[in-house]
Amino acid sequence: MRIAVCEDNEIHRDILEHLLTHYFSERSIPFELVPYKYGMNFLYDMEEGAYFDIAFLDIYMDDTMGNQIAHKLRAMGYQGEIVFFTASPNFAIESYDVDAGGYLLKPLDYGKLKMVMDRITRNIAPSTYQIRQRTTVTNLAYHEILYIESNNSKCILHTECGGVYTVYKTLNTIEKELRDRRFLRCHQSFLVNMDHIKQIGKQFLLSNGDIVPIRQRGVKPVRQTYIDYIASKSVVL
């Protein structure tokens, strides 16, 4: 998910980016935040073909007004979400004209930001991995995948409901396709979903009782990656 943050005040921009990073990390939603100091630079990028799922717009910026940017976006056919964040409540009613997904007042409150983001992301399909088997296609939500193990020329996906899927791809290929920070390459032959790890030792104990090995020469960095991941989901400003 790509997020544009248009805010000319560096402090307010950093605060919003921090809160959004916490929100998406907490929910293990892949995201990319792109900051803009000037609203017109953001608009120029959009006119040149850039796309963002959500655009956060400050109302008062040095070079333009966020509400004017919003109207231009809709006139261009932009169908993504627009969220205003500002020190003034004066444009709240006008935000309905551009079908804004939220109107947040500064200083930003994480609880209110969370409510807006929950409402926006509720209708967005969770990240899924598509498995093709002959004439059938299965879409596995990332959170359903416990771990993936490599077995010769194929890989086996294990799910939290006990399902097992065979995919004729290398583990390197699947890792690149997933591109999600919750999946940790803990062993040459294993990719584990860190959200399902319950205990760390010389191996990982998962929520379903399965054991996933950790490569012997890389135990310390693998453990640290997991610790950092858990910490990133619990830290908030």
What does this structure look like?
- The chain has helices spanning about 10-25, 40-45, 65-75, 110-120, 170-180, 220-235; strands spanning about 1-5, 30-35, 55-60, 80-85, 100-105, 130-135, 135-140, 145-150, 155-160, 165, 185, 190-195, 195-200, 205, 210-215.
- It has about 240 residues and is α/β, with parallel strands linked by helices.
- Helix 1 packs across helix 6.
Mean pLDDT score, rounded?
89
Order of helices and strands: EHEHEHEEHEEEEEHEEEEEH
Strand residue content: 25-35%
Query: Termini, distance in Å?
Result: 22 Å
What order do the strands of the largest sheet run in, or round the barrel if closed?
2-1-3-4-5
Largest β-sheet summary: 5 strands, parallel
Portion in helices = 25-40%
Bulk shape? elongated
Global Rg: 21 Å
Quick summary:
By secondary structure, this protein is an alpha/beta fold. The protein has helices at 10-26, 39-47, 66-75, 110-121, 171-178, 219-234; strands at residues 2-6, 32-36, 54-58, 81-86, 102-105, 128-133, 136-141, 145-151, 154-159, 164-167, 183-187, 190-193, 197-200, 203-206, 211-213.
Relevant terms:
5-stranded antiparallel sheet, alpha/beta, 5-stranded parallel sheet, 31% strand, 237 residues
How are the secondary structure elements laid out?
Elements (H helix, E strand, L loop, with lengths): L1 E5 L3 H17 L5 E5 L2 H9 L6 E5 L7 H10 L5 E6 L15 E4 L4 H12 L6 E6 L2 E6 L3 E7 L2 E6 L4 E4 L3 H8 L4 E5 L2 E4 L3 E4 L2 E4 L4 E3 L5 H16 L3
Parallel strand pairs: 1-2, 1-3, 3-4, 4-5
Antiparallel strand pairs: 6-7, 8-9, 8-12, 9-10, 11-12, 13-14, 14-15
